[in-house]
Design brief:
- By secondary structure, the protein is an alpha+beta fold.
- The protein is 37% helix and 16% strand.
- It is built from 26 helices and 24 strands.
- The strands form 5 sheets. The chain has a 9-stranded mixed beta sheet, with helices on both faces.
- It is globular and about 80 Å long.
């Protein structure tokens, strides 16, 4: 590949992290070779999902061409105009205009069986291969459309594969799947091969051919039971007695280096649910969870034996590795309890992750406290916007947002529709978050044409309202602003508040969402230890992560104080500045004058949060120091000392690479 294609390949592989212009750039380059057609923009709305009965059904029409008479572009190449195209997806019009026939394989295992029975002497040529963004292991194989005037049409074998020729189109690489929002990415990027003879012979017949044609039936020697066991279909998984988390892991493609842990968790879940070994092997052959197992069969055999041994030796300990519920809440069924030894805790296949690096851990509550008017709601809106559309320099220009694939639901009572609109207008004046992002990822619970809500987070009725919205939009971040508006307990009672918040934690865990709660301080300033705002000290005790926002009237400055972190190191206090309703950290004021960490953080910010080598970071630290202190300079050796100091303080992270290389990250 030349440099242009290297860059396009990189963009395609991370298309879900690009802005609209980035995906249009992909389509523009691909349109130089292929006849691309516009498809429908956006994703299913909650109303459409409700109307069609499921997200999958509502998503189908978003794969459809946006123009009438689009079939002409199968015969003649469509001129590309960026203004005509969706920013989410585009279609490849298959046929002579694009020069391709595309084999769309829904089930690799069944396809191999079909080939062995129908065409045992013809293997599938190695060619350009695209992994679709849908559920399961599904691929598009691109083949050359023959010259010579013969016409090749669309054909299919139900449940196994489709051939897309004249009159057919497929989503092009870089497109986002309308149901999963995952990108279509390259699985193998090599020259497009000539189509196999059987595919050409089959696709010479138009879709008007007989429906009972022998070529269109699944192979006779595969029974209905076998199809159910290996077909990557959601209804198959839904019939297994597995947790939702295990089912989701089975359908998820994990990056290399992060596959062993979820694979182990799924193995334990399947064996613990008494799924027979034949079905387990079929799952690992057909679903994304089995990617590493298919690459390394010997490793998988060892994993199966180890999992069997683990369950045989300590079935109770397996419950810990699968994540059973526990706690002092009386609503937890007795069957969920068990005894776990310390070794199982130490070796549990779990990982500690951040939503926002070194600021908010995933699946843990975050409590933000402060006096009225301190800016808590504005700060929380910024957190939400940065989670759905991460800024290059991170939250507050300091904390890296690890990915932007979140959906946020606000349950708030203080900001009206008019007021929130004004806030969003001001913020977008300085931070250009796209329309499609706020439309599809940022939500407010409201009623009667307003975005303010009222209810008790401890009541089943209000929880069911939130749960229903979770089923529709699939949010993973829940913001409650302020706490006082959404309960009827005595805020000064440690017993009542702790039970309320424990119940709320269990509710959030059941939805697999991370909660953020805003809580006010009382009228009089007093030190609250680890923080927690007004009322019972149990509020602060309950929260694993607490930040306090202060407004310094005298200095017209904001101070952000990290009061509590249960599972990572506390951050230093930050001085914040507010411009266009967005906070930024004044790192120079936040740090002592002799704290060299400031220069390293500033250097990484200038490098968009990442330095691939120490040399790159070292040189930028020297430049930053010179810019901040025009009459002074530091040597490269001193810059390295600054970097080592920042690493020792956990102000920056190091990630090992190939051949001993180390990269530096905010």
């Amino acid at each position: 590949m030349d440099s242009t294609w290297n860059e396009i390949y990189r963009l395609v592989q991370q298309a879900d992290q690009l802005d609209a212009d980035g995906r249009l750039t992909i389509f523009a380059v691909l349109a130089q070779t292929l006849s691309l057609i516009p498809l429908r923009n956006g994703f299913p709305t909650p109303a459409e999902i409700e109307e069609h009965g499921s997200l999958a059904k509502a998503a189908k029409k978003y794969k459809a061409p946006a123009e009438k008479g689009w079939n002409r572009w199968c015969h003649e190449k469509r001129p590309f105009d960026r203004t005509d195209f969706s920013t989410d997806r585009a279609g490849v019009a298959c046929g002579p205009a694009s020069g391709v026939l595309v084999l769309d394989v829904d089930n690799s295992h069944l396809f191999e069986a079909w080939i062995q029975e129908k065409h045992p002497d013809e293997s599938l040529p190695v060619t350009l291969k695209v992994r679709t963004g849908g559920h399961g292991e599904r691929f598009h194989y691109y083949f050359q459309y023959p010259s010579g005037g013969e016409q090749y049409f669309c054909r299919s074998v139900e449940g196994i594969f489709d051939i897309r020729g004249i009159g057919g189109q497929v989503l092009c690489p870089g497109s986002l799947h309308p149901e999963t929002r995952k990108p279509y990415v390259f699985a193998e990027i090599i020259p497009i091969a000539p189509a196999p003879l059987w595919l050409l012979e089959m696709s010479k017949k138009s879709d008007g051919g007989k429906k009972d044609d022998d070529e269109q039936r699944p192979p006779d020697r595969i029974s209905e039971k076998q199809i159910l066991e290996i077909a990557p279909l959601d209804h198959f998984l839904s019939n297994l007695n597995l947790s939702d988390d295990t089912k989701q892991k089975i359908l998820t493609t994990f990056p290399q280096g992060q596959r062993s842990e979820p694979s182990w968790s799924v193995l334990l879940g399947l064996l613990n649910a008494n799924v027979d070994e034949q079905t387990i092997r079929a799952i690992y052959q057909s679903y994304p969870i089995g990617e590493k197992a298919r690459e390394n069969p010997k490793w998988f055999e060892r994993e199966i034996q180890r999992a069997k041994q683990t369950i045989a030796q300590n079935p109770i300990g397996v419950d810990m590795q699968l994540g059973f519920s526990s706690g002092a809440n009386p609503s937890s069924p007795d069957s969920e309890y068990g005894i776990v030894n310390a070794y199982d805790v130490l070796t549990a296949q779990t990982s500690f992750e951040f939503l926002i690096d070194n600021f908010w851990p995933k699946d843990e509550p975050l409590l933000i406290t402060g006096y009225g008017g301190a800016g808590k709601s504005v700060l929380t809106l910024q957190i939400a916007m940065d989670l759905v559309f991460p800024p290059a320099n991170g939250f507050l220009d300091k904390f890296k947002v690890l990915h932007g694939g979140h959906r946020v639901l606000f349950v708030q009572s203080e900001n009206s529709l008019v007021g929130m609109r004004r806030r969003l207008e001001l913020i977008r004046g300085a931070y250009a978050i796209p329309d499609d992002v706020i439309q599809q990822k940022l939500f407010f619970l409201g009623r009667r044409n307003d975005i303010r809500a009222s209810g008790d987070i401890d009541s089943k009725q209000f929880q069911d309202i939130i749960k229903k919205q979770h089923g529709v939009i699939g949010f993973d971040i829940l913001i409650v602003d302020p706490l006082i508006s959404f309960h009827n307990k005595d805020e000064n009672s440690n017993d009542e508040m702790r039970r309320l918040l424990d119940n709320f934690s269990e509710f959030c865990e059941s939805l697999k969402v991370s909660p953020l709660i805003i809580h006010h301080h009382g009228k009089f300033k007093q030190e609250r230890g680890v923080g927690g705002g007004r009322g019972a000290s149990a509020i602060g005790d309950w929260s694993p992560n607490t930040w306090e926002l202060e407004y310094k009237e005298k200095d017209k400055k904001f101070k952000f104080i990290h009061k509590k972190a249960r599972n990572f190191m506390l951050n230093d206090d930050l001085m914040l500045e507010l411009k266009s309703l967005r906070f930024t950290a004044n790192l120079q004021q936040s740090s002592a004058k002799n704290d060299t960490t400031y220069y390293v953080i500033k250097a990484l910010q200038n490098l968009n949060g990442v330095a691939q080598t120490q040399t790159v970071l070292k040189n930028e630290v020297v430049n930053v120091y010179k810019a901040e202190n025009p009459t002074q300079s530091i040597s490269a050796v001193t810059a390295v000392k600054y970097i080592d100091n920042a690493v020792s303080k956990n102000a920056v992270k190091t990630i090992p690479g190939a051949k001993g290389a180390i990269s530096y990250h905010l």
